[in-house]
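Severity: low
Component: inverse-folding endpoint
Summary: output formatting inconsistent between runs
Steps to reproduce: submit the following structure tokens with default settings.
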């Protein structure tokens, strides 16, 4: 490009920046490599300067310069997204939020944070007053709250609270625009949808107000089963048992547990398992439920014991894919909603040896439903699309993780509200260009 980024760095004086090429390479990538298709499409995309603002005023200063020189700007939290969400397709500036890591205030039930606050670090503070995040991804230890709102969707806690886009899970955001004269906007209520899962294409979030959940001491438990559908039915029953407080209900069909060497002493070969987080206070009724489904508890750690090692969370959601790929890098995944056990059973029976199923239950409307990131033995892109079409024709919903635009993934269609909002706040199309298909069209 014709822009001299050394000069830009000077103009940004007072704000930490880097043009070091090794650092830029790291700051330009995410976990897109879980997808063989995205790997091909995105591997050489790089930003040209990274900036590390600490305040909203510094974000505004960066925004002004981007508008002045028409420089693309891609926001980055921890960079753990899976669809190239924070990969700068057209270079430019990477705005890294890791130094915007202050909790502004914290009260019972609600908190206000800067976007770069890491989720586990936040919970450590919130738990001191008996509260925690409602929903958090399996990348909880490293991911940022702003990144989860900008690019995530579900995680532990979703069995109670659903998806982050469900009404009420985000109360208010402040954001910086890339208008001719950048400004700060606040969105509340349904208007927060304009930035939710928008990949940073509709403004730079500088502050978030998030409702919290009561914190319990979470017992971490593994239950094994001889039969997968019994394990799945147990998962449904636990998710539906309102008297048993839980945070994670994840069911893994054999041979998936064989990809978890760290758990091999607890899951005999050929068994199916449930990886769970249940309130320590509800263990007795929980054991009764396990007995009803003829499961066997093989691992049970109190919250205090679990805190000393790797949480079972880090074997669920897309961490399952991470572990499976470290054994066999031909494996990839598809995000799938089955909605009912009947549909799940039909698809489970047709899986062949190309597909392996694990479930994470989540609340959708008034029900807890089975969903999960099925593992796929990748052969070709055509075959992958065939699997997607086949599953969809049988009533499953697939959020395709092998695409990098917002619309082609989970949303499935252009959201006219998001597009109109982008036209207002980013008229030059500088924010994460190429990710919102509806804007270009
Ligand atoms: P980043 O990857 O840095 O950013 C994500 C998107 O948000 C980008 O498009 C970025 O531009 C945008 N963004 C970041 N900050 C801002 C801001 N301040 N303003 C505007 N836009 C912003 N996701 C789930 O939902 N649930 C899971 O359980 C889950 N498990 C995962 C497991 C593994 C092994 C991996 C690799 C990923 C997983 N993910 C999951 C995806 C990802 O980790 C989460 O969505 C995570 O919350 C992203 O946070 P981050 O800070 O890394 O965001």
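Observed output (run 2 of 3):
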């Amino acid at each position: 490009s014709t822009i001299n980024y050394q000069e830009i760095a000077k103009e940004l004086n007072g704000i930490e920046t880097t043009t070091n090429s090794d650092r830029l390479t790291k700051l330009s990538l995410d976990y897109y490599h879980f997808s063989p298709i995205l790997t091909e499409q995105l591997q050489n995309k790089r930003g040209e300067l990274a900036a590390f603002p600490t305040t909203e005023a510094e974000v505004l200063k960066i925004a002004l310069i981007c508008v002045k020189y028409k420089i693309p700007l891609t926001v980055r939290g921890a960079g753990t997204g899976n669809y190239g969400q924070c990969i700068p397709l057209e270079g430019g500036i990477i705005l890294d939020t890791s130094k915007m890591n202050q909790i502004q205030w914290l009260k019972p039930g609600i908190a206000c944070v800067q976007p770069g606050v890491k989720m586990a670090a936040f919970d450590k503070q919130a738990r001191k007053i008996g509260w925690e995040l409602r929903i958090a991804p399996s990348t909880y230890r490293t991911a940022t709250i702003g990144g989860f709102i900008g690019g995530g969707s579900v995680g532990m806690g979703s069995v109670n609270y659903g998806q982050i886009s469900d009404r009420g899970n985000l109360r208010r955001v402040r954001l910086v625009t890339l208008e001719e004269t950048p400004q700060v906007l606040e969105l509340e209520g349904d208007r927060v949808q304009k930035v939710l899962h928008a990949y940073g294409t509709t403004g730079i979030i500088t502050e978030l107000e998030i409702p919290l959940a009561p914190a319990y001491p979470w017992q971490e438990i593994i239950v094994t089963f001889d039969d997968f559908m019994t394990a799945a039915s147990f998962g449904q029953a636990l998710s539906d048992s309102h008297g048993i407080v839980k945070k994670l209900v994840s069911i893994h069909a054999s041979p998936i547990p064989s990809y978890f060497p760290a758990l091999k002493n607890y899951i005999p070969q050929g068994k199916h398992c449930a990886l769970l987080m249940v309130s320590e206070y509800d263990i007795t009724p929980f054991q009764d439920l396990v007995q009803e489904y003829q499961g066997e508890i093989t691992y049970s750690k109190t919250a205090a014991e679990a805190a000393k090692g790797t949480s079972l969370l880090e074997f669920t959601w897309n961490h399952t894919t991470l572990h499976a790929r470290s054994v066999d890098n031909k494996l990839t995944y598809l995000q799938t909603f089955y909605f009912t056990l009947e549909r799940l059973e039909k698809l489970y029976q047709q899986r062949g040896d190309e597909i392996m199923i694990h479930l994470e239950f989540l609340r959708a409307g008034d029900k807890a439903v089975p969903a999960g990131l099925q593992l796929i033995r990748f052969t070709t892109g055509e075959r992958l699309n065939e699997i997607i079409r086949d599953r969809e024709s049988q009533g499953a919903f697939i959020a395709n993780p092998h695409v990098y635009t917002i619309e082609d993934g989970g949303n499935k269609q252009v959201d006219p509200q998001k597009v109109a909002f982008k036209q207002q706040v980013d008229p030059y199309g500088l924010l994460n260009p190429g990710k919102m298909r509806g804007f270009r069209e």
